[in-house]
């Protein structure tokens, strides 16, 4: 009997917040394409259980109303991925729904995510050096679109486009991803890099400079 | 008769005693040795290692379903599903991914060079930097298997 009370009390504490976070996400059936917990099997769409760590909320809100293509071949678990067959398009939501879902998504975070201390924004020389390494030392551009010095998008398509990464992603998420992608995803098609911290944080800064505003 | 009976019973008692000691001794030593030195397995063990090591000498690296899966997961995004250099990134790269079915070129490369290219990236063997380094992602033995798999794709060996 004591146990039953305990379960009821625990349930009362845990249940309401979960329900309120998941409500519109549930209603819109986001879980049919996205993982909302790490325990589920991989799904076609990008994982959302750490959305609050990964995305910048203004970008998310805009994306949900007007979904732009970030992965021209679809996501890595899309069956047509290796043939470049992107399947379904993301539904677009009303301004109101997009705002609500963004709020819900921003609540979805991982516990104990490390907080990285970023260096100052890069000066011109550091930026040029990092760009060189982005293309030559680490071959990032082979799979990720980014902007060349003339402000033109270029690069491979198997990884998500980084052309607007500075508006889309949180710097801390980028830094942790570069250190240990397995924090978020057990299986990625990206090579694992063992960058020293200086390089890794400089790369994070560099990626954060990539923005649509830079397209010329 | 009585004397004989007494003798017999003494002998049988003694032998029962002896057997008892023997059985317990075997029992105890059997358990102990099984854990420590494993007496029964040795004949098996001495028989099985030779064929194993012989096998290793003949074909040290074997392409398995896992090797092909690894190639599809990581390499095919550039080198293509069939290794023809036509993966989804191919047309966006400044240097096209190597066609792994082309014997004319791959004959000119040693297994060691292919291994280096995969482990340390294209630049490490004087090739284009668009070919990433996989040394932190894949183990050496997986990379050796991938080299074998590429040899299977080109149906060629180093000249």
Task: Give me some keywords for this one.
heterodimer; A: 216 residues; mainly alpha; Cytochrome Bc1 Complex, Chain D, domain 2; 2 domains; two-stranded antiparallel sheet; 2 strands; 2% strand; B: 159 residues; 7 helices; globular
Bin the helical content of chain A.
40-55%
Helix-strand sequence of chain A: HHHHHEEHHH
Biggest interface, residues from each chain: A-B, 25 and 23 residues
Radius of gyration of chain A, CA atoms, in whole angstroms = 19 Å
CATH fold category name of the largest domain in chain B: Cytochrome Bc1 Complex, Chain D, domain 2
Helix content of chain B: 55-70%
Largest sheet of chain A: 2 strands, antiparallel
Q: The biggest beta sheet of chain B, please?
A: none
| Average pLDDT, all residues of chain B | 76
Work out the oligomeric state of the chains in this entry: heterodimer
Topology pattern of chain B, helix = H, strand = E: HHHHHHH
Question: How would you describe what is shown here?
Answer:
The complex is a heterodimer of chains A (216) and B (159). Chain A has two domains: 86 residues, Cytochrome Bc1 Complex, Chain D, domain 2; 84 residues, Cytochrome Bc1 Complex, Chain D, domain 2 (Orthogonal Bundle). Chain A is 42% helix and 2% strand. A two-stranded antiparallel ribbon of chain A has the order 1-2. In chain A, a hairpin with a 5-residue loop joins β1 and β2. In chain A, α3 runs antiparallel to α4. The longest helix of chain A has 26 residues. The mean pLDDT of chain A is 89. Chain B is an all-alpha fold. Chain B contains seven helices and no strands. The interface between A and B is medium-sized, with 25 and 23 residues.
């Amino acid at each position: 009997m004591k146990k039953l009370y305990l379960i009821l009390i625990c349930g009362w504490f845990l249940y309401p917040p979960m329900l309120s976070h998941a409500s519109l996400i549930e209603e819109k059936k986001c879980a049919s394409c996205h993982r909302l917990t790490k325990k589920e099997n991989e799904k076609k769409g990008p994982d959302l259980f750490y959305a609050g760590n990964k995305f910048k909320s203004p970008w998310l809100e805009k994306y949900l109303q007007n979904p732009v293509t970030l992965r021209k071949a679809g996501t890595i678990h899309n069956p047509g991925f290796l043939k470049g067959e992107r399947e379904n398009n993301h539904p677009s939501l009303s301004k109101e729904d997009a705002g609500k879902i963004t709020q819900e998504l921003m609540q979805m975070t991982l516990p104990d995510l490390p907080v990285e201390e970023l260096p100052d924004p890069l000066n011109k020389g550091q930026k040029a050096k990092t760009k060189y390494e982005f293309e030559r030392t680490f071959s990032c551009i082979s799979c990720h679109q980014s902007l060349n010095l003339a402000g033109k998008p270029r690069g491979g398509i198997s990884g998500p486009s980084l052309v607007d990464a500075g508006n889309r992603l949180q710097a801390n998420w980028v830094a942790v991803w570069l250190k240990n992608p397995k924090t978020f995803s057990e299986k990625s098609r990206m090579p694992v890099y063992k960058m020293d911290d200086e390089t890794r944080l400089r790369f994070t800064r560099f990626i954060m400079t990539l923005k649509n505003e830079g397209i010329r | 008769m009585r004397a004989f009976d007494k003798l017999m019973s003494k002998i049988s008692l003694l032998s029962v005693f002896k057997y008892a000691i023997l059985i317990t001794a075997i029992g105890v030593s059997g358990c102990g040795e099984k854990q420590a030195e494993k007496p029964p397995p040795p004949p098996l063990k001495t028989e099985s290692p030779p064929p194993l090591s012989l096998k290793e000498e003949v074909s040290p690296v074997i392409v398995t379903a896992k090797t092909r899966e690894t190639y599809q997961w990581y390499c095919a995004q550039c080198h293509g599903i069939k290794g023809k250099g036509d993966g989804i990134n191919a047309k966006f790269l400044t240097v096209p991914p190597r066609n792994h079915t082309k014997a004319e070129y791959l004959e000119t490369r040693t297994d060691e060079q292919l291994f280096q290219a995969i482990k340390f990236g294209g630049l490490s063997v004087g090739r284009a930097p668009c070919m990433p380094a996989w040394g932190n992602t894949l183990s050496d033995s997986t990379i050796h298997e991938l080299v074998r798999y590429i040899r299977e794709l080109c149906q060629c060996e180093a000249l």
